[in-house]
Design a protein that fits this description.
The chain has about 230 residues and is an alpha/beta fold. It has a single domain, classed as Alpha/Beta hydrolase fold, catalytic domain (Rossmann fold). The protein has 6 helices and 11 strands.
């Protein structure tokens, strides 16, 4: 189900268990070449209190394959189209407002969960607009250099919960990218949880189990109050 009048085509899974007040939002962002339905397969394994939304990236690569930004693959690693990445971040920022309003969700409990390029974009948004995000799950991604250049103030980032999962056998974005995220985020006042798994560029049963438990713990714990 989706409301295509919003900025991004999307699919939803409504909560199957009530929470206090309006439902929290879990926004799923797919990787390059995928689509809005891809990560929705994880929804049955996640906390039933979440209103889960799978969003489609805005750039069409081919029928059924979409991207948040184009990438040039070089010998030195992937190079993102910085202009498109910035535009997608702004679009995602707007979409969050639209979704919380459209479905009457708790705007103070917006969680992002991205895989690969979806992790790159959602992590960048969390680090630059932390007031919009209650928590971030970055799976098999990397840091966007442009995001590091426009980080939010330390007081706004203080205590921001971030879970990073990466595979030691990842041949698309090697483990060095996950370890770079760890190294860079340990310099910031965020609440970082970092895990490596013996997996490739994928979501394993072990990583999904840890992520699901982490997300549930965030819902059960006190709300984060970030300085503006």
């Amino acid at each position: 189900m989706s409301d295509d009048a919003l900025s991004l085509i999307h699919r939803v899974r409504r909560p199957t268990q009530a929470s206090h007040g309006a439902p929290p939002l879990l926004l799923l962002l797919h990787g390059i070449g995928s689509h809005e339905q891809d990560l929705m397969g994880l929804a049955p394994h996640l906390d039933p209190r979440f209103f889960v939304v799978g969003a489609r990236a805005p750039h069409t690569l081919q029928p059924g394959a979409f991207a948040w930004f184009h990438v040039e693959w070089t010998a030195d690693g992937p190079i993102a189209d910085a202009t498109e990445a910035k535009q997608s971040m702004a679009l995602l920022n707007r979409f969050i407002d639209e979704v919380t309003r459209q479905y009457t969700l708790d705007a103070q409990r917006v969680y992002l969960m991205g895989f690969s390029q979806g992790a790159i974009l959602s992590l960048a948004l969390a680090l630059t607009e932390p007031k919009k995000v209650a928590g971030e799950v970055a799976m098999s991604g990397r840091l966007l250099t442009e995001a590091l250049a426009t980080l939010a103030a330390p007081e706004a980032l203080a205590g921001l919960p971030i879970f990073v999962a990466h595979g030691t056998q990842d041949q698309v974005l090697s483990i060095r990218y996950g370890r770079d995220i760890q190294q860079q985020l340990e310099k910031l006042p965020v609440a970082l949880t970092y895990h490596e798994y013996p997996m490739a560029h994928e979501v394993s049963g072990a990583s999904l189990s840890d992520i699901a438990a982490w997300l549930s713990a965030r819902l059960d714990g006190p709300r984060r109050e970030a300085s503006q």
